[in-house]
Amino acid sequence: MMTDGGCMTPQSEQEKVFQWINELAHPETREAALLELSKKRETVTDLAPMLWHSFGTIAALLQEIINIYPSINPATLTAHQSNRVCNALALLQCVASHPDTRTVFLQAQIPLFLYPFLQTTSKTRPFEYLRLTSLGVIGALVKTDEQEVITFLLTSEIIPLCLRIMEFGSELSKTVATFILQKILLDESGLSYVCQTYERFSHVAIILGKMVIQLAKEPSARLLKHVVRCYLRLSDNPRAREALRQCLPDQLRDATFSVCLQDDKSTKHWLQLLIKNLELGAVPPTDPRQIGMSPLTS
Fold this sequence. Notes:
Layout: H1 10-23, H2 27-40, H3 47-53, H4 57-67, H5 79-97, H6 102-107, H7 115-118, H8 125-142, H9 147-154, H10 158-168, H11 171-186, H12 188-194, H13 198-217, H14 221-234, H15 238-247, H16 265-277
Helix pairs in contact: 1-2, 2-5, 3-5, 4-5, 5-8, 8-11, 10-11, 10-13, 11-12, 11-14, 13-14, 14-16
InterPro entries: ARM-like, ARM-type_fold, CNOT9
Family: Belongs to the CNOT9 family.
Pfam family, one: Rcd1
């Protein structure tokens, strides 16, 4: 139904959404429906519950993911394949973000279906887009600051996957992966997990150190913000703090990033706190929430 101005009414738009959801169940109409729904994911209220509770929809989205597994090793993924599966991933991100579907999304262990994409190393645009969109689903989960999300992620291999992307990914992928690690560390169980063994801590510290060296050559204030925040949170752990006194990169102690951070008051503040925490005899705040955080922006 159209109004006099030629625009769809809310009722007719909702009918179209229901039609597209129904079309996901049929292979011949699925691709077009994926595209239309992915465009609507931020404007349609309660799209996530509609997707979750409609018959066969989640199975169809998982089928889209599984269908391209053969194209990631050997790396033959095309731009068309990447765009199509990323539309499916965008709908799963919608489900991951919604408070009414997040828990069941985790209980079904759907994030694990995305991990093969995060393991890819090809630098081509289709693979980069695939990794970035997959990271977006995990990023949507950790943004909620919910314990069940961190508990789930700590039982999976997300930390080493993020660390590899932090080392080898594009700047944007590195930023999202570092944000995910930061959110895990800000949870008490996440910090304890990373600092439980020297091997885990050293893996994180080595990658962060490499990132600092790279950032000194190719500055990115957005990425540096999350790197500094990870270091600051690690310094809340006594054993990690002792280790960081020895291994914190010199570039964070001197004026290397002064120009990069001149307009970023929060990161400058975090860096000052980090240096203060690493001074002998310093006792950092026990509650990470005492330190203001700004959300990741694209």
